[in-house]
């Protein structure tokens, strides 16, 4: 076995241990948990949409405990100001000097709960630190710790007192994940665990190991044909008629940005790594396409009036643009 294969196997085992510890606490939500780990490996951020009580906070908090990282939660409210997030300068009367008090964004895993409840100024402050990985307070730059993952949640059932995130800002999130209710069997297990003895999570990795995993993730091989597949998918959201999807043009106001192509490639790398491979396959990318594109496709009024969702449009684009064959698949067919 080659060194690369052995390293991939060790990495997969470590990620499996992390997931096992989290699943001792969190019941179900396997797809959501997988997306959180993918975002963590690919150094991206998550926007999560789901009703309250679906273990979003518990998932991130438990994950932070398994990697021995810092976890902080910010409840977004209409009276929040940017200083409540990034920090501010405080005057010390005894010394006569100003001291910098860093805000809660200085952590490894940050949960921004109900991000659409805060005004645009506060949302911009968070999205800036997500992109730049640093904060400037009174002309002094402070970098956030590594690794740094933001998971922002939105409540889809309430619109009163909310401030919708602008499309340009939403684009900074790597994926938008929809979290649904658990099945009856899962809910039975949830009630049993919550009402039973508390489960103690064992730390299985360190933030240093996670940083090493993120570097290793960048070395996962992505075939040029897969990158071309990502380019075609994203291009089809901008110019549907160029890909034989003229009927979709009236439903799309704006398509996805180049960030979507980058996130598809990085996400495919992370998912391949999570699945124990040193190379990405077409299914690694196609599994992530809806999550990467759904918040980047701006729907027209015509689409909204006809009840057409971004997921519907992305599904039609994927049906039209075929994924490339797997590596060496042509040789198998020839044989």
Structure description:
The strands form 4 sheets. This protein has a 5-stranded parallel sheet. It has a two-stranded antiparallel ribbon with strand order 3-4. It has 15 helices and 11 strands. It has 2 domains: 3-214, P-loop containing nucleotide triphosphate hydrolases (Rossmann fold), CATH 3.40.50.300; 220-322, Helicase, Ruva Protein, domain 3 (Orthogonal Bundle), CATH 1.10.8. The chain is an alpha/beta fold and 335 residues long. The longest helix has 21 residues, at 3-23.
Brief summary:
The protein has 15 helices and eleven strands. It has 335 residues and is an alpha/beta fold.
Helix/strand layout:
Elements: H1 3-23, H2 30-41, E1 46-49, H3 56-66, E2 71-75, H4 83-86, E3 87-92, E4 97-102, E5 109-113, H5 120-132, E6 134-137, E7 140-143, E8 149-154, H6 167-170, E9 175-178, H7 184-195, H8 207-217, H9 224-238, E10 252-254, H10 258-274, H11 282-286, H12 289-293, E11 298-299, H13 301-305, H14 310-320, H15 329-334
Helix pairs in contact: 1-3, 2-10, 9-10
Spatial order of the strands forming the largest sheet: 2-5-8-1-9
Structural class: alpha/beta
Arithmetic mean pLDDT: 83
Distance between the termini: 25 Å
How large a portion of the residues is in β-strands, by DSSP E? 5-15%
Corresponding CATH architecture of the largest domain: 3-Layer(aba) Sandwich
**Gross geometry:** globular
Low-confidence runs of at least 5 consecutive residues: 330-335
The CATH class label of the largest domain is Alpha Beta
Order of helices and strands: HHEHEHEEEHEEEHEHHHEHHHEHHH
Could you give me the name of the CATH homologous superfamily of the largest domain? P-loop containing nucleotide triphosphate hydrolases
Q: Helix amount, in percent?
A: 40-55%
CATH topology of the largest domain: the name is: Rossmann fold
Query: What is the helix tally?
Result: 15
Number of domains: 2
Radius of gyration: 21 Å
| Number of E strands | 11
User: Can you summarize the main beta sheet?
Assistant: 5 strands, parallel
Domain ChlI/MoxR AAA lid: 252-314
Domain ATPase AAA-3: 45-175
Pfam family, one: AAA_lid_2
Protein name: MoxR-like ATPase
